[in-house]
Amino acid sequence: MTRLEKVFNQKETKNKVLVTYTVAGDPNLGSSKKILNDLIASGADILEIGVPFSDPMSEGPVIQKAHERALKKNIQFKDILNLCKQIRIKNKNVPIVLMGYMNSFLSLKNKLAKELNQAGVDGVIVVDLPYDESKSFFNNLKKENIDLIRLISPTTDSKRLKRMLASSSGYLYYVSLKGITGAELKNFNEVKNKVKKIKSLTNLPVVVGFGIKDAPTAKKMASFSDGIVVGTKIIDFIEKKSTPKISNFTKSLKKAIN
Amino acid sequence: MKYKNLNNYAFPDKEGRFGEFGGKYVSETLITALEELEKVYAKVKKDKSFQEEVIKDLNDFVGRPSPLYFAERWTKKLGGAKIYLKREDLNHTGAHKINNTVGQVLLAKKMGKKRVIAETGAGQHGVATATVAARHGLECIIFMGEEDIERQALNVYRMKLLGAEVCSVDSGTKTLKDAMNEAMRDWVTNVEDTHYIIGSVAGPHPYPEIVRDFNSIVGKELKIQSKKEFGKYPDIIVACVGGGSNAMGIFHPFIKETKTKLVGVEAGGSGVKSGKHAAPLSDGKVGVLHGMKTYLMQDKNGQILSTHSVSAGLDYPGVGPEHAYLRDIGRVEYQSATDQQALKSFHDLTKTEGIMPALETSHALAYVNKIAPKLSKSKTIVINLSGRGDKDMFTVAKEDGMTL
Fold it and tell me: Is the CATH number 1.10.10.10 carried by domain A3-257?
């Protein structure tokens, strides 16, 4: 059983999964490592680690700035892999998922899957790699047991969804809104209906992300899904230089969803 | 790789690719919109009444066909091949960009979209989009890098006069690529009522095809005009390449006419060797940006490098995927011209022919300045004079050490 499967298998205990997103190297590598370990200690079940990119097209202003801060520190892909290794040394169980843009992953060429595996990475989310373009990428990752986590959006229709599900693994990431990260989440019922629809078509766990900024929203979203993703709000703390507040915030989310 | 037979050249393929280039590398949310666009476009491509509507606007609103002009004095001065200019600078709004926006705005209306957005570098595409939006009464938002807003103040004011909202983009390098990122962010948020009018043969499929098709009126006219003017197709066609829309527009109808040499000229900035340039076909690597796989200026980690060019319209780290393909198969030759060479040619053409070219276009002129003297007088070169230089007055003055 993979680390991701184990985390979601706790479903029997009805525990919802808390996924956190931070950017590798924001505000610098040392702090980044400390933040990730704190997140684990305060209840994060899966770490999504952003790969900083010069052109983060799907990000709102808060996460864009996080990418810029990390790049100012000249974070290289090998630094990110090292960071993952260091987390993995301390913690054998927490799944690590790298989230980024296609051009970053392409830079490792055919070594990518192997390097990810060696660094203890469990899955990859590529924001600008839709299902249609992902066949060979998916197959390459699979060789090293790395899951390619699919993003599903409000505009994904059922026909397309069924095709996507045929080559999905790990979990599914439902993007709760049409927009960028950190945007305003308006329609709960729409999200609920869509997640129900997805769950009726697959046994894969579905987590909901984009626009979840507080415990009450997290609670609502978790009530019909397998877990939630929080990114912008955590990074907001980093931007405001109040990283000590991250732990309490994470604990409050964890409490709210379970 | 060298092309063998281009008789069956028919790209993009069903996956939206030109060989390995192109594709649809966008977030899941945009896929539906791209598929809709693809469907509608395939339909209108065959729809006679739609095509007639486009042609009518090109004739009566844009002022086509644009003349093919013999640059007699410049030819004499260089003393070699005969030089002709395809006068896209005479189009309404002053550049080839309007050919595309006239078509895309009709597409937007066909899809029932009430709002159009666009990115712009030099401001020509922004003006061309704001113009057609005004003509059709659509809401219009233009995204423009902060740095470009500064160097293209005149075009910014033009867009505002036309009723468009100009959004200043201060992320990243504050130029064209960042404006495109921001336009993508807007599109993903407002995808239901908004059509994104991409201004170059770049971006995800089907944009490279759509923008090429609407601009190919330039090459189609040239086929007729060159036969009439000098009894054959040109020996060489030269165009500047940023994203590559004016070049693709004039090249595409000639791809199968292999006796005609096609040359694209990239922005060499301070020189390709200096690293300070915007010439991904001369000095870039294959990667993915803005929805397409193509040649990009990037570092070993895949970070997109900041570019440098005196012309805002060429200041882009990528290039349309069809250009990438045509480069690889050797059908089009890609060269570069430096800022200084472009500026010199800007002055030369202005003084010799009384035609003030855009700084983008001046890169194509600089290349011709170099090769024309070496060619026999029986040869003909056609340059796509893609835009006029009025917008560049402040930049040129600054380069010349003048204050206006």
Answer: no
